[in-house]
Amino acid sequence: MQSSLTPGRVRKAPENFLDGEGIQQAVAEARQGRRDFLRGAFAAAAGVAAAAGAAAAPAPADGDPNILQLPEHSRGLGQPVATDGYGKPSKYEANVQRRTSPGLTQTRQASVSFAPLQSLFGIVTPSGLHFERHHQGWWDIDPSKHRLMVNGQVKAAKVFTMDEIMRLPSVSRFHFIECGANTGMEWGNVAVPTCQYTHGMLSCSEFTGVPLRTLLEMAGVDFRKSRFVLGEGADGSSMTRTVPMDLVESGEVLVAYGQNGEMLRPENGYPLRLVAPGVQGVSWVKYLRRIEVGDQPWNTKDETVHYVDLMPDGTHRQYTSLQECKSVVTTPSGGQVLLDKGFYSITGLAWSGRGKVKAVDVSVDGGRSWRPARLQEPVMSKCLARFSADWVWDGKPAIIQSRATDETGYVQPSYRQLRAVRGTRSIYHNNAIQSWLVEESGEVKNVQVG
Amino acid sequence: MQSSLTPGRVRKAPENFLDGEGIQQAVAEARQGRRDFLRGAFAAAAGVAAAAGAAAAPAPADGDPNILQLPEHSRGLGQPVATDGYGKPSKYEANVQRRTSPGLTQTRQASVSFAPLQSLFGIVTPSGLHFERHHQGWWDIDPSKHRLMVNGQVKAAKVFTMDEIMRLPSVSRFHFIECGANTGMEWGNVAVPTCQYTHGMLSCSEFTGVPLRTLLEMAGVDFRKSRFVLGEGADGSSMTRTVPMDLVESGEVLVAYGQNGEMLRPENGYPLRLVAPGVQGVSWVKYLRRIEVGDQPWNTKDETVHYVDLMPDGTHRQYTSLQECKSVVTTPSGGQVLLDKGFYSITGLAWSGRGKVKAVDVSVDGGRSWRPARLQEPVMSKCLARFSADWVWDGKPAIIQSRATDETGYVQPSYRQLRAVRGTRSIYHNNAIQSWLVEESGEVKNVQVG
Predict the structure, then answer these.
(1) pLDDT under 70 in chain A at which residues?
(2) CATH of domain B326-447
(3) Angle B40-B7-B3 (CA atoms, 0-180°, nearest 5)?
(4) How far off is chain A from B255, nearest CA to CA, in Å?
């Protein structure tokens, strides 16, 4: 397969994993002196610019070699304000995309698209790159017709319009959302090549909404008697999940409409979704249309045959609610290439469904020795935390790992530790330490260690 | 001018202020029982849906009036994952746009577009809605060709590529950016109709970048001798601004490439801009190409004839660096309509260029009495803070205000207090208390009080 990095051609976002031959060609081009390679998007810039007919390198003005002409953008008038009432990223970032994995699922409506974590910074996930997980596709629902019913063990069942919900006092909080199946392929040591595919069912946003507790109190609930709520979605899959009442009572569960300052995106549940901080993503019911209050779990289709873990003793572990403490190095990570020895900032993300990340350690020798990483403040509860550590690469093979500890004292386990408890037949809830092998060539690969 | 809210027609984003006749028609339609009006986008939903041929209201199935058919989105397959590798907002949000003000400037390249604060939540500004202020338009610059030079009073001048900058240890911080001219029209009591136009030269993002201090240390700087840096941009206006060294020495000034988790947007300076927390927006030089280190201010064209305030004694106040503590109620705000009496959550934003917001008070009687509002935690330094306060509207006229206090003890002034110090000939740096008059009809208007 031809590499899409040959200069002069427009680079299209690859649908598939970057193949081995493509990697070889990219490395060869890079070693020919094109040093702008660490970020794949920059490597594409030459191709994109050539295709778009952008200005050539500065040429002497009036034939005098001592006078260089400024680039066009330093001389010309430029684009006007509000060229777009809603702007978009640079064309040079066209390769930064969420991606699905062809063949992963039978249909693309019951499927996943992965966030390109290796290309992101900080903790906010750009809403256009938020991962997706749908069971029966997504819709752009008319908010003026959408309703939320609250029924079950309540004094008086209520039906809310969006306007009614949005008039109530709201809160805004930064939280991660992670699919219970994130990193699932690695149970079977599939070794998918990039961080996007190993960990990309993960995103983080500032969510705005009304605490579910407020709506329950308006409907009249008895917290001593009713210890569970059911969330039901309006999409074709009628997603239904039990959520424990303690998380609702604390005010943490939100009926949310805001995502990073604007309304939710349609793929993320517009106009309304449940936000259950720390709980696996499936319980954050999208297109939320009903909340039922009850005194026992509902054992719905979405929590009895799916999202359960087969334990070594043959039983199924159900209702695994919270995403345990986890981390991943996003750079250097699988599929990237280090072109020279020297300084690198190892950086990545850490999170815990139980609260705040307390510490992150980094290893460059496959877990034999560890040192603490810096955590970007402020560290927020049940939210992504960005970490970084300094590293000087000496050109020899290295295995890079991160290991997070949360405020409960829980330490992210190695694969060996996790399998000792969970066996080898799990699909979900894989929070093991991720390893990236840096080869002498500079290529970075997904490996499993310990 | 015809209202764009007539049911059945596609609603286009209005280019101009919503005219008086348009407001009257909208209010009349709302009073005919269409209660979904508080958010203008929802009002458009009926028109958009009709135009797009969306499913009609549920119809009886098999002619049996007791069985309603589910809407199409609850029955059908829906859209696949990664329909867009980079997603976009709901079509029902098409009216949430940044807008320019026709006639405000001679050209649209030396102009402004305003963020729609009245439609936003939390503190993050969606990057597509970030305000713009350009002096000679904007460009989408090839990052592989972009360079940053550091020269002046340094041991050895340096030139950095984007890759070299992005390999260095970085930090990520949430900061507001406000144009020095924000709210400028209100000096002259122009009373522009909406919050978008009174306060919309304001946005907030998670910025990622390298502390400028790191780059200066690499070039070799003497902090005792050199107390100023100059930032220079690569756009046609060659924007150049002096920044005091103390902000650089503290590590706060960043050479930034990340905005809300992805690369900067081209309109916001892709691939590199200065981030000078708390300083007025013009100093956050976009398309940053050069940093010069020196021992006195440069008195550039961009800081001698512009961005100065004419004081009552006839002198010009130069180098007003920090944006003083300020706040605004974003809902209810000018141009909105309250359709009925009852509960409303008064909400808005507060910020200070000197550090953290300490407190926000809200008044509904034009400043005669005040009560504290809730601040959304965590409150971050030189960053937007979201506040809210409960209010029950009794249907009588009310004047809503917010007043912020920052951690230095500085209290946001009224117009009377501000004019007493600054006179009446200022253009910039208007941080006075904003008033919104709620009339008995429910219409909300921009007024100046005190």
Answers:
(1) 1-68, 304-308, 318-320
(2) 2.60.40.650
(3) 65
(4) 14
